[in-house]
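Entry 14. Structure prediction run on the chain below.
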Amino acid sequence: MIMANYLKRPAVVKINSDGYQGNPGDLISVSTYDGVKVIGVTLEIIDPGNKVVEEGSCNYNTVTCTYDYKTINQVPGRAGVKLRATVFNIPNHKGTPEVTL
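Output returned:
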């Protein structure tokens, strides 16, 4: 069982974009799961033309047990914007889902 968990990819359970309106300082939260240990989460914000307009590391929130990202750049409108989270675990496997707003 331990080896099976070690070999599995981590998963993003949910990308919560409720607090994201395209403004600097907006909060995007990422819920993750891994049978061993998540060691980091990164987030990319991609405009409707598939250009990465912002990317960075998320910070672990000990209160909500999520990985939070505070935006820096203005992105006009949410329609067609993609959020791509990448989660890494101890053996450095990764999972990378995305959501389109």
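The beta strands are 11-16, 27-33, 38-46, 52-57, 59-61, 66-70, 82-89, 94-95, 98-100.
Filed with the rest of this week's runs.
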